[in-house]
Structure prediction request, 409 residues.
Amino acid sequence: MKAYERLLKYTEYPTGSDATCPDCPSSPEQLVFGKALAEEMKQIGLTDVTIDENGYVFGTLEANCDEDCPTLGLIAHMDVVRDVPFENVKARVVKNFDGKDIVLNEEKNIVMKAEAFPFMSKYIGKDLIVTDGTTLLGADDKAGIADIMTACERMINDPTIKHGKLRIGFTPDEEIGRGAAAFDVAAFGADYAYTCDGGDVSEVCYETFNAASMNVKVKGFNIHPGAAKNMMKNAALIAMEFDQMLPEFQKPFYTEKYEGFYHLTHMEGTVESAVLNYIIRDHDKGLLGKKKEFAEKIASFLNEKYGQGTVEAKIDYAYRNMKEMITPNMFLIDLPFEALREMGYEPASSPVRGGTDGCTLSFMGLPCPNLGTGGGNCHGVMEYACVQEMDECVELIIKVAQKFAKLKA
Prediction:
């Protein structure tokens, strides 16, 4: 089976993770998908296939070479974001993309405009998987799962492809920052690993954000507006004031490359109470700390202005920049770079303006940079995957496995 065919099948599973649910996995549909993946792993010939109560799916591709080489892990996540409609995905293949606008949904006039995504001109002549414009596709990260599964199937069916022991892992809840929370690194048993989680095939990434979440709660005081002078304290307005005091040019739509941001993801409020939820990101750990301190100073200022206890800003760290753990193991970047050059690509590594399970796993003792999957425009209804690039991602995984087989354990 081709990788894109698997992706089309996987999009039928509505696996949106739910940050409001403390369970693991946070949505039952992920467990359903996990069980289906476990069955498929057995069918293609993987061994030691397990799925635990938290929804983590592990399997093994046994070595077929005589070398005593490190065990390599390949990891992708099963969930998709819930911020965008993710159910009833209607995926289709656009053959021989001509570089022009793609009409996703004629009835609703939803169009993927070429001028909005000029970088997609690189796909001219190739085939793209898209939706009807009313939901995301789920290529983040079901394309990664499809690439890994297809690579394993090819290696199983072609014993001339020599490789060491491979451990396969599919995780829940990555999109809500909990993908590695219950990952049993010891049971997984890999020495090194790669996540396959978004991006061009030519990119091998090992720099990510340092990440934190911020929850701001505002307590107000309501009274009849006719008698409100010097008494009413409008929590919704104070919440707006808090947001307006954050640096304007440190919001996502002003930032790129190594620039960090404050991103307001959710807000609700009345006169009595208001809540703001943010994610805070920076590649530099020190700058992330300064962002935290600045937000706390805003809360302190507003408490002086409106009374102590009015504003509470709770900030929790989520994950760290994996660069710290990958730099001592740069062969993990060198090997796929070599493979990509053999495939005719000029490899690149740019800072990921996000994170992967590999961030946490790297600090848990499993160094884990990221390989591309052939998907793009993730977390939105304009999400797509390129059929031919997914094939190339499969080829890259196989080449990396072959190169690992030549390393000494």
Summary: The chain has ten helices and 17 strands.
